[in-house]
Amino acid sequence: MDTRAQFASNLRRLRKLRELSQDELATRIGRSKEAISQLERAKSSPSLETLVLLQRVLEVPLDELVEVAKTDEYADAERHRHLTDLLSLTARMDTRQISVLIQTGKALLDS
């Protein structure tokens, strides 16, 4: 996957993880919905200013937005992304929800 396509994939994943629509994200960074759509479809590349705004709104390190997984490291990078996403989700959960998540995870491992 080339750099632009990887960025597009990262942006889409992080936006959805934060439960933001393209329109909401666009409004928060002062860009158009079409600009976000083009970025997510790898039709355009972001300016440095846009990268910084996205990083702030999505609350992720800049390198997570622009990370390009190398072929031999793909599995580790994918695992890292999933664990980062999981950590972000659990930060918004209450104790009961985290308990249910743990029980579900244990049940998955036992099956």
Would you write up a description of this structure?
This protein has 111 residues and is an all-alpha fold. It is 73% helix and 0% strand. The protein folds into 2 domains: 1-68, lambda repressor-like DNA-binding domains (434 Repressor (Amino-terminal Domain)); 70-111. Helix 2 packs across helix 3 (33-40). The longest helix has 18 residues, at 74-91. The protein starts with a helix and ends with a helix.
List the helices and strands and how they pair.
Layout: H1 3-17, H2 22-29, H3 33-40, H4 48-58, H5 62-66, H6 74-91, H7 95-110
Q: Quick recap of the structure?
A:
The chain has about 110 residues and is mainly alpha-helical.
Describe this protein with a few key phrases.
111 residues; mainly alpha; 434 Repressor (Amino-terminal Domain); 73% helix
The largest pleated sheet is described as: none
Number of separate strands = 0
Order of helices and strands: HHHHHHH
CATH architecture verdict of the largest domain: Orthogonal Bundle
Task: Indicate the overall shape.
Answer: globular
Query: How many separate helices?
Result: 7
SS content category: mainly alpha
